[in-house]
Amino acid sequence: MSKESFERHLVLVGLMGAGKSSAGALCAKRLERKFVDTDHMVEEAAGISVARIFATLGENEFRELERRAVSAASASEVPLVISCGGGVAIDPVNQEALRESGYVVWLDAPIPELAERATRKSGARPLLAEGDPVATLQALSEVRYGAYKAMADLRIDTAGLGVSAVADLIINAFIEGFTG
Q: Which residues form the signal peptide (predicted)?
């Protein structure tokens, strides 16, 4: 991998529950990079949780804050590992910023597994707060999968894998320059 390539951001996208935050934090540690999570950046900017933003300000305001977070992370001159909220990819402005500044890895798994992972923390996922999580994630996947596919340099199936194994796959692909 060229020095220039290694200086790009490592960007993780995918539906909630795919392992972006957990694997991303481990990748950052192993690559000796700073880890940023766009959802956490949004929470810091708003001073309230993502769930409260959705409840009080609405999804449109959340998406605007998210766009600002993506812009700030993408513009960093220091190479980062960026974990993106699940909906980042549906915004063409976000897609362009992330593609231009980094290597994008789409983490994926079967919908039932994503639902099981995403519902482990009660109240943390506003889009899963009501109804059947599997049905909700299926509907989200129908909207988002095309965007993930379009922007990703690589798709990794995380089904049945632990955080360390997912981080290994991401780092190996990153070091190989996504030639596989």
A: none
3-state secondary structure 143-166: HHHHHHHHHCCEEEECCCCCHHHH
Q: Where would I find the beta strands (DSSP E) of 14-148?
A: 34-37, 80-83, 102-108
pLDDT single digits (tens) 107-123 = 999 999 998 888 776 55
Q: What is the CA radius of gyration of the chain?
A: 15
Alpha carbon distance, N-terminus to C-terminus of the chain: 13
Provide mean pLDDT across the span 43-70: 93
pLDDT tens digits along 149-161: 999 999 999 999 9
| Rounded Cα–Cα distance for residues 25 and 81 (Å) | 8
Banded pLDDT at 132 (limits 50, 70, 90)? confident
pTM for this predicted structure: 0.90
Domains, in order of start, for the chain: 3-175 (3.40.50.300)
